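HUMAN: I'm a chemist; might I ask for a sequence paired with its structure tokens?

ASSISTANT:
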Amino acid sequence: MAAITPTLQNRIQSLDVLRGFAILMILVANIWAFGHVQLGTGPNMLVKDALTGWADAFQTVFVSGKFRGMLSFLFGVGLALQFNKAQRTGAWPGSYVKRTLLLLLLGCIHGLLIWYGDILAAYALTALIAMWFVNADDRTLILVAGIMLAISLVFGVGLGFLGTLAPKGGEMGGADPGATGIMAAFTEQGQVAAYQTGTYLDQVINRVGMFGAGLCLFFFFGPALLTSFLVGMIVGRRGILAAPSRHPQATKMLSAVGFVGLFFNLLALPIHASGTTFDFSMLVESGLNIPLSIGYAIWLAIAVEKGLFKPITSVLARVGTVALSVYLLTSVVSTAIFYSWGGALFAKLNYWQMLGVVPVVWVIVVAFALMWTKKFAMGPVEWLWRSASSGAKAPFTKAAALDATKGGIVPPPIAPPPAAPTYDPNRSSWPQ
């Protein structure tokens, strides 16, 4: 029972806060995929004047890819923590493979039946690769991460040039407007017909094509995800995010990485806003996003440790506790607003109206998180996932979870004590 008991008293608050922040902010990047055709350049298709051009540039620089990268970084931290738990029982990968395959299945269900922009399947595929590096020393992880980052930047440049071939300015063009079935997913007219006025079956057929195309793009975006995973594994081994002040050198290094990322992203700002034919959003999303997302993580972890913005971070922590459920609920609420079976606003809103939808969705999902976590130890999807992974029914309510810890049965810590690391420091090149 201890192996599946949710950690209540020794959770790492900063990880919950970071998950909650990333899950909410990723909607700012995803709102265009929920409510508009995705066969041009996303929000660029809605840019009609200089003001929206600069707003889109700021969104690209500070948001696009950053929170996908931040979540993959946190997945890497979680992988290291799972490995630490497994070491206590001498079993690795143990149930981790099953857990990850279930996440892959959940991502496929989400991508095919709810929203084609799913990221869970990509995280699961990356985890199945990253898990084989858990015993690698830091030098190896840094080397592999560096190679993956270089590959990501090359792909980003290539995709940026390919973006010059995409239709601009919201013009309805591209593929054959008469295409039907799965091929309709690759026409702008087909997307509008499916999601604005089509039946649920029309939308499923369309999602098959879009989700399948997204999985094919894993070849291009996978290296960036793996980079963040591997860096997250190094950070997770030491519990740096739990107490940045105990690791001053590592914290300074991670913060410096974030500032370097901020510098290079800012360089892209005026170029992107100028309307250049080179699609900088591709480079920003597949390479330049990584260092800044790491910076976001360490800066927020520092704020949590110092007790800054407590009213906000306490809410974010509650969201992070049920992050998977909130992510899926966000998709349900957003598609209800835009798809034909709900508000049918797909491709009807302008740039600013699309952004206005974001806080509406936030209010709904945050309210769910606050109400749910008053009584329950984990989200409904988290409970199903954990129970299926372990093969035993996990405690659901907080009362049941606390009862499971009585009699000396206490869940293991989710991070190793700083004074007793489970890695060999002689093999480490990472500053303490």
User: Anything to note?
Assistant: Confidence is low (pLDDT under 50) at residues 1-9, 167-177, 407-423. Residues 116 and 211 are 5 Å apart (CA to CA). The first helix runs from residue 13 to 35. The two ends are 34 Å apart (CA to CA).
